[in-house]
Amino acid sequence: MIVSILGCGWYGKALAKELLQKGIIVKGSATSAEKMDELKDLSISPFIVQVNGDQANYEADFFKCDTLVISIPPRLKKGEGVTYLAKIKHIIDAILHNNMQNIIYISSTGVYGDHNRTVTENDDPDPDTESGKILLEAENLFRNESKFKTTIVRFGGLVGPGRHPGRFFAGKTDIPNGLAPVNMIHLDDCVGIGSAIIEQDAFGHLFNACSPDHPAKEDFYKDAALKGGYESPQFLCELRAWKIIESVNLKPILNYTFKIQNWKDCTFDALPQSSN
Predict the structure, then answer these.
(1) φ and ψ at 39, to 5 degrees?
(2) pLDDT tens-digit map of 250-275
(3) Residue 151 lies in a domain
(4) Mean pLDDT, the chain, as a whole number?
């Protein structure tokens, strides 16, 4: 089996390592010779893939695979939000040109607006942020294609090695909405879900991917700060807009059980913040 990963950042590299351990050939995208060397060091077959709002330049062999994983979030802080959908369209064109069949698109639970309710894959997302609206449009671009099957995975807030949640609010005070529930997922579960989709050939589905444990924001981040040795943050004891993300598809379709069932039992690695 051959899996190509478009977007070998924090998640893409971790997924690649897991797949390689299972004997799967992994191709990874890079935008420069330096990044190609980084992928080679991980035993990932590197390919130059450059996609912008105007065009896509890539080595054709990258798209010759059994499954394509797309993990390229819209970088709104870098001003790339307006070109993101154009990039997705170029990628879909490449998928169609190379007659690919199985796609995994990494989205975010940010597509769900904070409307004070519990939501599952069966609910209308109704996004209330720019990034959420862009990601939902991108999801629909994949859904509208009938010549290949796309599984969409909506990850919650990402934590794990290189992204220790204890540092997110370390030392800050008067942080709003301290009683709002969190919707987080550990890298181990991100990788576990991606690997399960590929191994079980589970394409054409939608999965919400958050730990089933949703402690209050204040409790979660104070506990994480303590575990990581960071200065404790201070939250306002209030409940404003919130949501709880649950999945009704992961168990029946993938028979997946979360590795992180309770955040109190999770020890985070206090590594430097990932730059990807």
Answers:
(1) -70, -40
(2) 999 999 999 999 999 998 764 333 33
(3) yes
(4) 94
Contact call for residues 106 and 9 (beta carbons, < 8 A): no
CB atoms within 10 A of CB 272: 10
Domain housing 90: 2-160+183-214+243-260
Q: What is the dihedral of CA 193, 199, 205, 211, to 10 degrees?
A: -10
**Global model pTM greater than 0.85:** yes
Helices (H) and strands (E) in the chain, counts: 6, 12
Number of separate domains in the chain: 1
Sign of CA dihedral 19, 21, 23, 27: positive
Instruction: Give tens-digit pLDDT for 235-252.
Output: 999 999 999 999 999 999
Residue position matching structure tokens 């575990």? 227
Task: Find the helix packing angle between 81-97 and 130-143, rounded to 10°.
Answer: 10
* DSSP β-ladder status, 67-70 and 149-155: unpaired
Look at the chain and count its residues. Answer: 276
> Is 274 among the domain residues?
no
Reading the block at residue 80, the tokens are 């790339």
36 vs 132: CA distance, rounded Å: 31
For the chain, give percent helix, strand, coil, nearest 5.
Answer: 35, 20, 40
